[in-house]
Amino acid sequence: xxxxxxxxxxxxxxxxxxxxxxxxxxxxxxxxxxxxxxxxxxxxxxxxxxxxxxxxxxxxxxxxxxxxxxxxxxxxxxxxxxxx
Length: 84
What we know:
single chain, mainly alpha, 3 helices, about 55% helix
């Protein structure tokens, strides 16, 4: 009996200008895919939008207390790397 498992990775073809390609390529490290570069850049942009949203919020004492409590509790835990 033989079991065969195929992994299929979806790809898309996109058109970008030479300038956009050169900019992405200048950010890309040797063992990094262009997909990883794009994901990294868009994640950075999402964080910027989130922090901009928080910055523009009205002061909220309850939210501040909750964030402070989570921050304190987080300090009680230590992450460690586990190899399986």
